[in-house]
Each structure stands twice: as structure tokens, then as C-alpha cells.
Amino acid sequence: MEPTSPKPASPVNPAPSRRDLFKMTTAAAVAAAVTTLPIAQTAWAAGGETLKYGLVGCGGRGRGAAANAMHASTGNKLVAVADLWPEQTEAAVKGLSEDLDEQIEIPKERRFVGIDAYKGVLEACDVVILATPPHFRPAQLAAAIKAGKHVFCEKPVSTDVPGVKKVLALGEMAKQKNLNLVSGLCYRYDEAIQDTVNRIHSGAIGDIVALQGMYNTGWLKMSPRQPGWGDMEWQLRNWWYFTWLSGDHIVEQHIHTLDKMLWTMKDVPPSRVTAVGGRTQRTSPAYGHIYDHFATVYEWDQPEGKAPVRAFCQTRQWDQCAVDTSDWAFGTKGVANIMQHTITGENAWKRDPKKKPTGMYDAEHIALVKAIRSGKTINNTDYMCKSTLMGIMGRMAAYTGQTVHWDKAAADRADAKGKDVMTVMDSTEDLTPPTYDPKASYPTPPVAVPGIKGAGDSKPKAEH
Q1: What DSSP string describes 294-357?
Q2: For the chain, which residues make up each domain, given as ranges?
Q3: How much is the pTM?
Q4: Helices 255-264 & 381-400, crossing angle to 10 degrees?
Q5: Could you confirm whether domain 17-187+362-381 is CATH 3.40.50.720?
Q6: What whole-number distance in Å separates Cα of residue 150 and Cα of residue 365?
Q7: Which class for 354: exposed (0-12), middle (13-18), buried (19 or more C-beta within 10 A)?
Q8: Secondary structure letter of residue 402 according to DSSP
Q9: Which pLDDT tens digits describe the chain residue by residue (464 residues)?
């Protein structure tokens, strides 16, 4: 029998006003979005009829998400797909049809290709899966919400802060229109991890004093540049390696770890971050300009007289090296191994291994289908935006060598002075390119060198 949860410990959260500050920073953006995007007709009504799904982004993650969505209910059908490249749409249809034949109904006329291909998918579906490179998420999400579609939105939600702020506004619009917006931050839907985090929140390890988050993995794939590929096509086909498209891997991949840190801290964002990073193995220009490793220290301010809670995090993509995907919470009464679902200390606990939860990739889609059919809505905007911002502020800190604060209030609490004070919420860096023409010349930015002015600039200047 599992022990009952102990009495909640005293809170570790910063002052409550920080939540309000986060909401206030996007109030103007929300108002602007509401005036520019008219309320659409109510999307699919709750009931028993077929839910028509569309997939935007036919890479590995998109195909996986589409399969998970079909697993969620035999009443779901995938009716349209879109991608930049025709070979991707054809591969997706072929692969998914082999496993889910009766749920795949995608004639040639609903296989859309090109930068605006998502528009055709939105006309055909009730629910859309957005799984393109993260740079495109804000624009595609805007179109989906405007069209009145329920959305499964892969992580992260953007690669720059202006994009995240747009998504915050769109999330508010989704609430007003009773549209579901489910995030691809899948660990939030893992029943065993939910159980573990809930116990941390209930006080099983006492007051949190420190966190550790590790995401050390191997290399990513790379498509060698082919004759006839312009800069833009080469970058689009290798989007992981360019900050404007992926956010760098601290945003695109490490976001899962950062999201678990945020979740453990009850979705209160950190006050500041200091970071290091660089390129050790992936030094060739063939791998773009992103880093291959980061080490970050995120801090959460505590009530006066208490030390900040610090999260010590690592992420790297190195070949032939040790891998480690683990998350830890250290408290005054014990230690939680979040990924192994165990707690040691005064309230020792281990989740019963006989409890076999639904796989998290299926679980998030099951939750979405249930919400649509019941008429109740899920909206994951808050944490998916905060986790994206955590990744971006870590990238900013590593690229520049500066401590990056969440906002001016956090900087003031730290008594930060000087012209180089940086806050993620005040960042205006917009990484949108001037064109998406595959043949366009779009030079790769230099690799960021901390301490050098302009070293953190992630947007190249187009050549004409």
C-alpha cells in the first residue's frame, strides 16, 4: 500500500505578484489579438461523430503525433497533411496508412506542399497537429485559432520572445472561443510523473532547496547540402542547427527538462539564469551555428532571509559520450528522483511498478479527444510559453555571457545595475527572415562568442 501524502510544507514560491506581473506583460498583446482576429464559429460540437484531423509538419515528430492521435480514438481520422517538401507528405501518408489504414483518408488533393500549405489543412479538419519547425508555430497557431480549430501544438512555441508573446495572446483567444490547446510537453501527461510531482507539491520532500535537470543525448541527424540548394532550403532541411528555426537545442529539446523544473516549482518562472555553452564536437559549418552543449543555473527568489532555489541543468548533444535524462528535486526532508518515480528520506516512496500508465504520447491525445467530446476545454498556454521562455533566457545567457533576469522586477530584487542588464521579457529580438524563398541567399550567423558585443545576435542579414 502506498503511504498517504504528508501535510504540505511551507511554500517555496516567490511572491505571488510575480504571476500577476507575467500576465500583465501580455495584456496589451491579448487585446491586440482579440481586435485583429475575429471570433470564429464554434468548432466541432461535442458528440459522437468523426473527428477530422490535419497534420502540419510531416517529419518524424509529426508522424508520431498523428499516430498517437489516431490511437486516442477509433473515431478519429486523418484527412489532410502539409509539409514544405512533397516527399515528406508522401512518406507520411504511406507510413501512417500501413499501420492505421482505416483511419487515414488523404487523397492527393489533400496533400499540401509549400510555405502556406497549412492553410489547406485548416480548411479540411476539426483538429490540427502543428509539428513544423518551431519558428513557424506562432503564425500557424494564429491561423488555426482564427479558423476555430482545436490544436495539438508541439513544443517549443517559438524561437524568440516576440513570438512567445503572440502565442500568449492566442492562448487567451482560444479560451474565449472554447478551443482546446494541448501542448506537446508530454511529461505533463505522464501519470507516473504526475504522481511524483504531486507528492513533491504535497510536501513529501519538505521545502525544495535545489533542483537538477539533465538532458545529455547523442547527435542529431544532418542532411548534407545538395547542388541547387540555396541557403534557405539548406537551413530549412537542417532546421535543428539554426537558431531562428529551432531556438538552439536548449529551446527545442532541453525544454522538456526545463518544463519539469518549472512544473516542480508550481509554474512560477525563475528569477534569473547564468549559463555557459559552446561547440566542442559539432564545429563544422555543416552543423549551422548552434551550440552542442549548455550548462545553466536557474534561480527562484525566496522570501527574505532564504537562499534562492537553484536548478542546476545540463544539456548536450555529443556522440559516443554518456547519456543522462534525469530530474531531481532536493528538499529539507528528502530527495525525489522524478523520472524514476521515487522519493528517499522521511517520506520514502516508490510508485508501484505494477501500475502501468498509458504512454504519455498517447495520453496527451486521449486527453484532447475527451475534452473535445465532453465540451470541456484544455488550455496549456501558460506553461508551454513559460518553458519556452526559460529555454530562450538560458540561450541568451550562454550566447552573451550575461546573467539574464526574467523581468525588471526580478532584476531590481537582485540589485542588478549596469547597461548590460538583460531581461527575457523585454527582449525584442525577432528572428523572422525577410523571405522563405528556398533559393534565397541567407548566410549563417557566426557562432556566438560570450563577452563580444553582438555575439548573441541569431539573425543573419539577407544578401541580395
Answers
A1: EEEEEEE--STTSPPEEEEEEEEE-TTS--EEEEEEEESSEEEETTTTEEEETT-EE--TT--P
A2: 17-187+362-381, 205-351+388-426
A3: 0.90
A4: 120
A5: yes
A6: 12
A7: exposed
A8: S
A9: 333 333 333 333 333 344 444 444 444 444 444 333 333 334 444 445 899 999 999 999 999 999 999 999 999 999 999 999 999 999 999 999 999 999 999 999 999 999 999 999 999 999 999 999 999 999 999 999 999 999 999 999 999 999 999 999 999 999 999 999 999 999 999 999 999 999 999 999 999 999 999 999 999 999 999 999 999 999 999 999 999 999 999 999 999 999 999 999 999 999 999 999 999 999 999 999 999 999 999 999 999 889 999 999 999 999 999 999 999 999 999 999 999 999 999 999 999 998 888 999 999 999 999 999 999 999 999 999 999 999 999 999 999 999 999 999 999 988 887 667 999 999 999 999 999 999 999 999 999 999 987 665 666 654 43
Asked if 43 contacts 54 with a C-beta cutoff of 8 angstroms, the reply is: no
CATH 3.30.360.10 assigned to 205-351+388-426: yes
At residue 422, the 3 state secondary structure works out as strand
